[in-house]
Design brief:
binds 6-bromopyridin-3-amine, 16 strands, five-stranded mixed β-sheet, eight-stranded mixed β-sheet, alpha+beta, 446 residues, elongated, single chain
């Protein structure tokens, strides 16, 4: 987008839609490249996932918030060379404003916290589920949108906040049948990098850039990582030391290297102690190579991974104590995570844990002749006022068709409105599973 990398900001194409022509064009009925439709079956699975996101958020005492999908581009322009910046879905709107489809939710949350200022009392425990976007050249055929569940705690500097967030994700995993044998969390702290970089007197302003490079450690060759690190000003000796420290997988070993006086070791020891108390020690492990790919993290960082190593990171998050001041606000301690809706579904499929979610309708109501359609509508309304679901047959259909539809929508019972019964204030009720059929008075229908 706009700024040093140029992007396609200048080639955003005509701002106004093309003139309407009489020529009927056969439009592509597929969704735009990299995006998904959610037909009923897919939507049931998505709703099930989101219901679990919401239930866990409720259990942890979090309040739901939301923000526009479209934000000022400035919210996401950071100079640290993040992938999220290179793939920003940005354009100039018809008012010549630089805008972007949000690639993540955290900057919007930070913006709202600043906007609310002193009118909200800390700590804030907010969650959101929102669609996020990236514009990636389709050469890689990856998606351009996904839904993210975010939980954030604003105003708590202690590591108890990070421990609480990881506990909420463990709670979610358990709810959907994922165990500590399936998934773990790699946990580290950016303060590890900070303390190493300080030993080599690397200026603080390089810190974010170095983190973004390190985050690519498993994605690009090591030589490329070293080259990028030295090009940002880290000495060759510093690079070797950095890579040495990043290979540490034990907190005791890290303490040997960094000493026990630093914040990095202290924070991590406290987090692992809290994990013990929360009861999720078996889910987490220290891994110094975890830095996460967002420039604004300042402390503990974590990511959920599948232990079979087949999938990309399931979720990730960490502490971001300096984000608000980058938008001109007063800094507040903050931490949070993002959890995408795609990788988790791949994991559920891998584990055979995708739930059976079929359409369930309690009643199908059908008039047995066309002049009883109004009577059938009356029956449907009576049941709906009682909170029951009703599929009302809206046209004159043969009974064979009605039974077929009843089976397809998994109806529990069929209510037939026939002339002779209706004259006596009755309807015919058939329990479809047992075949049991009775006449029921309309005012006794329940
Ligand atoms: N940030 C982001 C947005 C959209 C997708 Br798909 N992946 C990552």
């Amino acid at each position: 987008c706009s700024g040093e990398n140029g992007g396609d900001g200048g080639r955003s194409g005509a701002l106004s839609p093309p003139p309407i022509t009489d020529v009927v064009q056969k439009i592509d009925v597929n969704p735009p490249k990299g995006t998904r439709d959610f037909a009923p079956e897919e939507m049931r699975l998505r709703s099930w996932l989101f219901q679990n996101f919401r239930e866990v958020s409720r259990i942890f005492g979090f309040e739901e918030v939301d923000f526009p999908v479209l934000e000022s581009e400035a919210l996401f322009i950071r100079k640290a060379g993040e992938e999220i910046r290179d793939q920003l879905y940005c354009f100039e709107d018809r008012g010549n404003r630089r805008v972007a489809l949000r690639p993540e939710l955290t900057p919007s949350l930070a913006r709202l916290v600043i906007q609310k200022g002193k009118s909200v009392s800390l700590p804030l425990k907010w969650f959101a589920i929102g669609q996020c976007w990236r514009y990636e050249r389709m050469t890689r055929g990856r998606r351009r949108e996904h839904y993210q569940w975010n939980m954030d705690i604003i105003g708590v500097p202690e590591v108890t906040a990070e421990a609480e967030l990881i506990s909420s994700i463990v709670t979610f995993f358990k709810r959907i049948g994922i165990t500590a044998s399936d998934v773990g969390f790699k946990v580290s702290s950016r303060k590890v990098l900070q303390e190493v970089l300080r030993c080599y007197s690397i200026p603080e302003n390089l810190f974010s850039k170095v983190c973004i490079i390190i985050d690519k450690i498993e994605k690009i060759p090591l030589d490329e990582i070293k080259k990028e690190l030295t090009s940002t000003g880290v000495s060759e000796e510093g690079v070797e030391e950095l890579l040495q420290v990043l290979s540490i997988k034990s907190l005791a070993k890290l303490e040997e290297i960094l000493g026990s006086a630093g914040e990095a070791v202290a924070d991590l020891k406290q987090l692992f102690s809290l994990a013990e108390k929360f009861g999720y020690s078996e889910w987490i492990e220290f891994d110094a190579s975890v830095v996460r790919g967002l420039a604004y993290y300042t402390g503990i960082v974590f990511e959920g991974f599948d232990r079979e190593g087949k999938l990309r990171a399931i979720c990730g998050g960490g502490r971001y104590d300096r984000l608000l001041s980058t938008f001109g606000g007063e800094d507040l301690p903050a931490c949070g995570f993002g959890f995408g809706d795609a990788v988790i579904v791949e994991l559920l499929k891998e584990k055979g844990l995708v739930p059976e979610l079929s359409l369930q309708v309690e009643n199908i109501v059908c008039a047995l002749d066309v002049d009883l359609q109004g009577a059938a509508a009356r029956v449907a309304s009576i049941l709906r006022e009682k909170g029951q679901s009703v599929d009302l047959v809206l046209e004159s259909k043969p009974l064979k068709w009605v039974f077929k539809r009843a089976a397809r929508i998994n109806a529990y019972r069929l209510i037939l409105v026939g002339s002779s019964e209706w004259q006596r204030g009755m309807v015919s009720v058939k329990i479809l599973s047992s075949g049991e059929q009775n006449e029921v008075k309309l005012d006794e229908l329940e």
